[in-house]
Amino acid sequence: MALHEAGVCELKKADAPQDISDKFVHEELKELDDAQNRLRALLSILDLYKEENQVDSTLKRLFSPSPAKKHRVEIRKSDAILSEVSAKLETLEKSILPKSSAINDIDEKLRGNKYLAENLSFLPDVETRVFEPTSNIKSMLGIMSKSDFEDIRKELEKKTVFAVKEKGKELVLVSVFPLNEDAPNTERILHEKGFETIRVPFENRKPKDILRELAESSNEMHRKRREAEEVLRQMWKKHAEELKITEEEIIICKDRFEALKCIKATTAFSIMETWVPESKFKRFNLLVQETTPYYYMETEERDDAPTMLNNKAWAKPFESVLRMYGLPKYKHFDPTIILAVSFPAFFGFMLTDFAYGFLLLFFALFLYFRAGKYDPSIKDLGTVFIFFGAYSVAFGLLFGSYFGDFWQRIGLNLPMPIDPMKDVMLGIGLAVATGLLHLTVGLTVGFVENMKKGKYRLGLMDQGVWLVFIISVLCFILPLNLSFMKSLGVVLLFVSVGMQLFLNFLEKGFVPALLSIFGYSGFLGDTFSYARLMALGIGTSGIALAVNFMVLLAADMIPYAGVPIAIIIFIIGHAFNMIMNGLGGFVHSLRLHFLEFFSKFYDGGGREYKPFHALRKITYTEVKKWQ
Question: What's the CA gap between 378 and 372, in Å, rounded?
Answer without folding.
Answer: 5
